[in-house]
Amino acid sequence: MADFSRGFEPAFFFVDRISGGIATLLGDGAAEGEISLPVSCLPPKTSEGDYLALSFEIDAARRESINSYIDLLFDELGDNP
After folding, report:
1. 28: burial class by Cβ within 10 Å (0-12, 13-18, 19+)?
2. Each residue of 11-40: pLDDT tens digit?
3. Which residue pairs, CB below 8 angstroms and at least 24 apart, start in 5-9?
4. What's the 3-state SS for the chain?
5. Whole-angstrom distance, CA of residue 24 vs CA of residue 55
6. From CA 12, how far away is CA 14, in angstroms rounded?
7. How many domains, in total, are found in the chain?
């Protein structure tokens, strides 16, 4: 069972179809629209007809890592971009 006690509600999606390793999800309720994702991004044994609770969280460590890498690239360019 998912823990939604962190102060935000997930978006719910219906697994409409899976073809060629790609799942097409349709928004249910407040989450309108369609999303296509590789099946490998979904929970194991996800199949057509399932409902998924989709939530997001900020990955501050990844952001910092990417920003550090970008700063390094700019330093390598110097004053002549």
Report:
1. middle
2. 899 999 999 999 999 998 777 899 999 999
3. 8/55, 9/55
4. CCCCCCCCCCEEEEEEEEECCEEEEEEECCCCCEEEEEHHHCCCCCCCCCEEEECCCCCHHHHHHHHHHHHHHHHHHCCCC
5. 17
6. 7
7. 1
Domain ranges, residue 63: 11-77
In a domain, 2, yes or no: no
In Å, how far from its chain's centre is CA 76? 32
First to last CA, the chain: 51
Q: What is the share, in percent, of the chain residues with pLDDT greater than 70?
A: 88
pTM of the model: 0.67
